[in-house]
Design a protein that fits this description.
The protein is globular and about 45 Å long. Helices cover about 20% and strands about 30% of the residues. The chain is an alpha/beta fold and about 280 residues long. A hairpin with a 2-residue loop joins strand 9 (about 135) and strand 10 (about 140-145). The protein has seven helices and 18 strands. The strands form three sheets. Strands 8-5-4-3-2-1-18 form a seven-stranded mixed beta sheet. A seven-stranded mixed beta sheet has the order 9-10-13-14-15-16-17, with helices on one face. A four-stranded antiparallel beta sheet has the order 7-6-11-12, with no helix packed on it.
Length: about 280
């Protein structure tokens, strides 16, 4: 059995959990636990304690990308686990910034990890950087370095990278996701899908020959898709015969309502506290 336990999300799925803008999930696959992302760090300690989910036995920490709402809890996690393997794309520590004001005179703010790579390593982090899709355990794939069609890629113009004295658009080159082979069928777990959920699904089909997915869980980043792109996502989910669409975090309220209306009882909010078994 494979389980996906949502630890951090914007919404809550049980009354003893807290919500925040961020994402983290505890995944158990083939009897081994893994932590996927760490949220901002505000609610993870509370939710881990409330749910009784000890982290000291996890095999590894997997990071979807370098934004603070996915890496902010890493210092606390390392304090719980001691030295731990961390799997991520090497662009994790790029200088991720966000331009929050339409006024060009207002400087963008830093939204990357709360510590440098060296500082994390001093805390016990042992980074393994992966640039292309790899199997990290039997039936457990780290999906990254996939091709991106512009028409299927979210256009978040707020996100920029520091370059010299200026800034350039940030493609979030390190975006990573997980593909789990489960008894129910393949399950795709997304962190934020900054490179586009449709591009990720194209990659899964082309790389693995997979044409059916039992579930798609996590942050889909559909909040930055136009209505016709959201419909394209629905069409693609249907083409993959997805039986469970469980959205989190950066999906967006409007996109979530469209998905809920279309998929009916196949839709679920993958909120903090939600647990999925396959």
């Amino acid at each position: 059995m494979t389980t996906v336990q949502i630890l951090c999300d914007n919404n809550i799925g049980r009354i003893d959990f807290l919500g925040e803008h961020g994402f983290a999930a505890l995944i158990e696959h083939e009897g081994k636990p893994y932590l996927f992302d760490t949220g901002q760090g505000h609610t993870l300690p509370h939710n881990v304690k409330a749910g009784g989910f000890p982290l000291d036995g996890i095999e590894a920490i997997l990071l979807s990308h370098g934004h603070f709402d996915h890496t902010g809890g890493l210092p606390w996690v390392l304090g719980q686990t001691g030295p731990k393997k961390i799997i991520a794309h090497p662009a994790l520590f790029d200088q991720h910034m966000a331009r929050l004001s339409p006024d060009p005179a207002v400087a963008p703010i830093y939204i990357g990890p709360p510590k440098t790579q060296g500082a994390f390593e001093a805390d016990g982090a042992a980074f393994t950087f992966i640039e292309t899709t790899e199997e990290i355990a039997p039936g457990f794939h780290f999906i990254t370095g996939y091709a991106r069609k512009p028409e299927q890629t979210p256009g978040d113009t707020q996100l920029v990278l520091a370059e010299g004295e200026g800034h350039i658009p940030d493609p979030i080159a390190e975006d990573a996701n997980l593909l789990l082979e489960t008894p129910s069928g393949p399950v795709l777990v997304l962190g934020c899908a900054h490179g586009g959920v449709l591009n990720i699904m194209d990659h899964v089909r082309e790389k693995f020959g997979i044409t059916r997915l039992h579930a798609v869980l996590g942050g889909t980043h559909l909040m930055f898709y136009a209505p016709e792109q959201i419909q394209a996502a629905i069409d693609t989910f249907e083409a993959f015969e997805v039986k469970l669409v469980g959205v989190s975090h950066c999906t967006g309220a409007q996109a979530g309502m469209v998905l809920a209306q279309h998929f009916g009882d196949r839709f679920q909010q993958a909120a903090a506290g939600s647990r999925f078994e396959f």
